[in-house]
Structure formats: structure tokens, C-alpha cells
Amino acid sequence: MKPLDIRDISIIDALPVYDCEKIILNIGCGEGRIDRHFARMGYRIFATDIKREESWQDTGPLTFHVADIFDRRSFPTPSAPIVISSQVLEHLKDYKKALINMLLLTEIRLILTVPFRRSFHSPEHLHFWDERNVLEFAEICRPYSVAYSQILTKPEDAARKQCAYLITIDKRQRLQ
Questions:
Q1: What is the C-alpha to C-alpha distance for residues 88 and 47, in angstroms, rounded to an integer?
Q2: Phi, psi at residue 135, to the nearest 5°?
Q3: Residue 117: CB partners within 8 Å, gap ≥ 6?
Q4: Residue 43 has what pLDDT?
Q5: Is 143 a residue whose pLDDT tops 80?
Q6: Quick one: which of 84, 129, 145, 150 could link to 134 by a disulfide (CB 3.0–4.6 Å)?
Q7: Which CATH architecture has domain 6-171?
Q8: How far is CA 104 from the centre of its chain?
């Protein structure tokens, strides 16, 4: 099993620790590296991505599925207590619609990561966020509580001052 990086550990730290079933829907799971760790932690995992990966192998509480964030009916479950999507929104032309669909799939907590500014220079990235426009997530996710912080990813990325945002939306906390 591949080791966790700091971003993965930040996601794990953002998991709800009380009053929540241990079920996770991961949107954009890729190879499913973090999902295998969730399974070892006792979570039931629905790991999804837009295309099937050769490394996918269902094992007990971990099942892999092809699903499209723009078609909520394609998901293996209509909702989940915890929804995670790490390093996905920057690849989507209509990330706002994807975010709204993720909120609709979330019962308790949505955990996201997105790149900070142009930290990671990839031609596949269509969007980047800084403090000013990450606040847009709070507007889209209203009336739910939104918290965000900058996180480093790997030690070599930290040396290059590359980081990401960890964004947590909790539907149990409603703002007026």
C-alpha cells in the first residue's frame, strides 16, 4: 500500500469524528490510494472516477465505480454521509455545477482539495484558487459552514512553495 502524503492526512483529519456513519463517497478517486487507507480505518467506501483504472480491485468495504459528477444518477449511492473530492475541480470546465452536485450527494460533510494559485503547473488545470476566490465556495455552499486552510502536499512540493486548499463544508452547521 502506498504511503499517505500530507494532503491525504489533512483529509483524514477533516473526517467527522462523531454522529456520522462511516461511509465515504470519493469523487475522482484515481487509483484509489487513499480509499484503501479509509477501508483499513473501518469505513465503507464508494470510490468513483470518470474512467476505470486498471488498479481497481473491490475488497470488502471498498468498491470502485465509474461515475460522472455531472450525472448524479451515475453514482452507486444517491448520497453519503461523507463526500470527498481531492484535486478534481481544477480539471472541470464547470466546477461550480460539479460543486453543487457534490453538495447534493453529501449528507453531513464535503471535503475538497484544490490547488493554491498556480502551485502545480499542469496544462490539464483549468482553474486555480487564491484567498479571494476561494471565498466563492462559501457563497456557493450557503447556508452551510465552510472552513478552508492551506496545506502542503509532499516535502518536495513544500520546498517549491506548492500547496493546496483543504475546504470542508459541514451541513450540520447552518449559517443565518
A1: 13
A2: -65, -20
A3: 128, 129, 130
A4: 97
A5: yes
A6: 129
A7: 3-Layer(aba) Sandwich (3.40)
A8: 14
Label residue 23 by pLDDT band (50, 70, 90).
Answer: very high
Three cell numbers written together for 162: 506548492
55 or 1: which carries more pLDDT confidence?
A: 55
Type of residue at 112: L
| Number of Cα atoms under 13 Å in the Cβ half of residue 55 | 12
The answer to whether 47 and 26 are in contact (CB under 8 A) is yes
How many other CB atoms are found less than 10 A from the CB of residue 63? 18
pTM: 0.91
DSSP 59: B
Cα(116)–Cα(20) distance, rounded to whole angstroms?
30
- Give every CB contact of residue 123 below 8 A, 6+ residues apart in sequence: none
φ/ψ of 40, rounded to 5, equals -65, -25
- In this structure, the chain runs to a length of 176
Q: Cell numbers for 173, please give them.
A: 452547521
Query: Is residue 64 within 8 Å of residue 51, measured between CB atoms?
Result: no
Question: Which grid cell sits at 46?
Answer: 464508494
List the chain domain ranges.
Answer: 6-171
8 Å CB contact between 72 and 104: yes
**CB burial readout 86-125, b (16+ within 10 A) else e:** bbbbbebeebeebbebbeebbbbbbbbbbbbeebbeeeeb
